[in-house]
Amino acid sequence: MRMVEIPPLVQAMLDPSFYPHHPQQVDLLQTHISYLFLAGELVYKVKKPVDFGFLDFTTLEKRSYFCQQEVRLNKRFSPDVYLAVVPISFVGDSFRLGDETAVIEYAVKMRRINEEHMLYRLLKAGKVDSEVLQRIGRLLARVYAVIPSDEKARAFGALDVISTNVLENFEQTRKYVGDPISKGAFDSIESWSLSFMQDNAALFEQRVAQGYIKDCHGDLHLQHICVEGENIYIFDCIEFNERFRFGDVASDVAFLSMDLDLNGYTQFSNIFVDAYTEAAGDFTVAGVLQFYKVYRAYVRAKVTSFMLDDAGLDEKTKGEGLRRAKEYYDLALHYVKGDI
Per the structure, how many domains does the chain have? Predict the structure, then answer.
């Protein structure tokens, strides 16, 4: 088996002495786009120099920019978690955190939050009540209230832009008809989505006029919310692609509502939506919520389906991806039929 070489910077950042606060140990987590260094009470995130089309971190300038964006955007939801962007220089023969002499990389500095208090874990442990979901709904209403619906944002609420995103989903998943989605389900979801847009053009225009098209979160699901006592932290906003983040606040609300439904917490889903609606005074959200729940479930189905094409994944992982994709497709179909 070929050993994966660890980049020198990563090796350096695994050493506790690299950090001014001298943590006892440093643990490394990786995603396809980032290295995360868990260093005691702090976390440092370094973006990988990758280009996946929908994101491009291939130059130092781009990584610097998107680090700044990550902190700026996430501070709207969790100002106490996202702390700063920190330069890393290579001076002499060593890497130095916080040194601007010869910058070779940037890291997002965050306060570490308690993994045991992530919303998905608390739900599984039966430690969530209605009041928690109400607080999340009210928090989102407060955050959205201060985000402007400016000319740039409003453009993302145009029906032709929304239609482009929806049509793209179906074009990119047509090859999965048969498995993990049946032709009947595919046709039903596609037909319903297109008909809804055609029949509700005035409603989409109303959402724009009412100021509900904003620079939102874009990835608002259970794994991105932490509840620590009286504090609620929402994190991992999409910083790398505006098209995935700008849109109707209803799309964000629908994402979390959909994820609660998927995991069997429909009652909590309804409580969350009701709390947001009342706190925001957003009474037209109900008209588009089903549409965006279908959209969000289908996007998750699509992304999960893409795993099936990854030659680098083992059969067990692909099998889990297939099962999960079917769950999302089934959920989208349930929404279309009005079962949920």
Answer: 2
On whether both 159 and 48 belong to a single domain, the answer is no
Print the domain residue range for 89: 8-112
CB 76 within 8 A of CB 143: yes
Is the same domain home to 53 and 173?
A: no
What is the separation of C-alpha 258 from the centre of its chain, rounded to a whole number of angstroms?
Answer: 13
Distance of alpha carbon 280 from alpha carbon 269, whole angstroms: 17
Task: Measure the CA–CA gap between 240 and 66, rounded to whole angstroms.
Answer: 6
**Would the pLDDT of 60 be above 60?**
yes
**Distance (Å, whole) CA 73 – CA 67:** 10
Identify residue 339 by its one-letter amino acid code.
Answer: D
User: Is pLDDT of 276 > 80?
Assistant: yes
Residue 82 shares a structural domain with residue 188: no
**Domain of 254: which CATH number?**
3.90.1200
Last residue of a domain, one of 57, 85, 112: 112
Band of pLDDT at residue 4, cut at 50, 70 and 90: low
Q: What percent of the chain has pLDDT over 90?
A: 93
Rounded to 5°, angle at Cα 155 from 302 and 159:
60
Six-digit token string for 275:
């709390």
Report the alpha-carbon angle 147-118-113, nearest 5. 80
> What's the CA angle centered on 43, arms 39 and 47, to 5 degrees?
120
Kindly state whether residue 2 falls inside one of the protein's structural domains.
no
Cα separation, 107 vs 158, whole angstroms = 36
